[in-house]
Amino acid sequence: MENEEKSLNFIEQIVEKDLAEGKNNGRIQTRFPPEPNGYLHIGHVKAICMDFGIAERYNGVCNLRFDDTNPVKEDVEYVDSIQQDIQWLGFQWGNVYYASDYFEKLYDLAIRFIKEGKAYVDEQTAEQIAEQKGTPTEPGVASPFRDRPIDENLRLFQAMQNGEIEEGRMVLRAKIDMANPNMHFRDPIMYRIITSHPHHKTGTRWNVYPMYDFAHGQSDYFEGVTHSICTLEFVVHRPLYDYFIDQFADSDYRPHQYEFNRLNITYTVMSKRKMLQLVREGLVRGWDDPRMPTVCGLRRRGYSAHAIREFINKIGYTKVEGMIDLGLLEHTVREDLKETAPRVCAIFDPVKLVITNYQGEGETIVADNIDGHPELGSREMLFAKELYIERGDFMQNADKNFFRLSPGGREVRLKSAYIIQATGCDQLPDGTITTVYATYDPNSKSGTEGGNRKTKATINWVECNTCIDVEARLYDRLFAVENPSAEEGDFRELLNPNSLKVVNCKVESSLQREMQALPLKNGVHEQHHYQFLKQGYFVVDPDTDANHLVFNRTASLKDNWQK
Fold this sequence. Notes:
This protein has 563 residues and is α/β, with parallel strands linked by helices. The chain has 14 helices and 27 strands. Helix 8 packs across helix 9.
């Protein structure tokens, strides 16, 4: 029990303490409140695992609430994608709510604030309001409209809602304290006018929309949230969160806000604005580009929900901001795949190998799907006189440290097949090798009594006439610098020019047979991983069709970035 207690993160410790003290009658309720203005990324996953995980662990409920208070940036497309991503990650909400569900209540509260002298309509520009805020060490300057009569504030706010005031001309501000050391208390904006964009859910019903700080805490209160969990940048917002609720709450119940460190990963940007730029300017192939840190991008790249959640478990939750090495995520993905992904031979830079003393029409080679695990099944490969091998596995004039194929009597095993010796090669005038010649030992077949002879190297191969052509997309880090968000200048200039390399390769025919056996969902093959031997882990891409197989490299076999 003591060890289990030590494993709890600090928010779980708070929850257990609240339960032990009988707070909220033992009720646990959280919420995940995304703004539907973009696709979820792996930073959101950290919050999702916290919000839904707390509810799961302590028999509570986690609701999904869309913070749809800004129709300019929001869209139903994002609402749908967010729900799909949460379910793919393995979570299920209790209820789906929208901040817009409370627009009527929030508007009535705003009227109440005005009537109680706690809010006023300000006609200054956004720039003027910002200038008057002051600094953390200097008090702000009161707006000339701060002491406007209550009746006039009511009339103007009603006019704002009626569409009689143009967008940007007026805002409703809370009347709190222009000298408060917490800048968020210096008469924050409660409502602004938006008439240029209809709301995705309420249409043109509203012309005034609440700001996040006014809508969020109240929405938590309306829903009965007990633990409102967010990231550290909202620490300074928490007193205002409490203040607004205290102005109208009519019971002892209060939702409480708690903050944890957000997720920052090397070679990545987490800004929705920057991601949107990348998509709109065609610098990536969409929100689900496998180089993007979006959930749909990671899914298309072949990251499993299990691997992503395991990564979040490893990094944990603290109150200190930091930077997580992307290599840890990649390592977690490799660990997830290495014991489950069937192996196949894939030749990325092929050169023909002719076995001159092979006389048969061909024969079947049986190979384990995963070496050393016959219980995981096997596959059949055709072996014949003409094969493809990797160009780098042959060297005409090799030194003593080259252990693969080279003339001079060195023995090399063809994986799961025979031992061969190179005898020569054909080459073009520029030195490019076109064909390698070798002989084989017919008594050295793997799995037979004579197949136990050891060699210093084993190389991969595919049979020339039955192998299939595959487009392999090799993805690497999207940015060439470790922390692109910290660099000065245009972040787009920091993109890694080698983040995508497309290779046409030759793959053993067993892959196509397996692909044909996979079920289709909406015309797309079920996501299934393979290890292309010595190349990495790959997953079929939705661009695949009957005539063109496309695979994304999910992860290399080891971290080659530093090299």
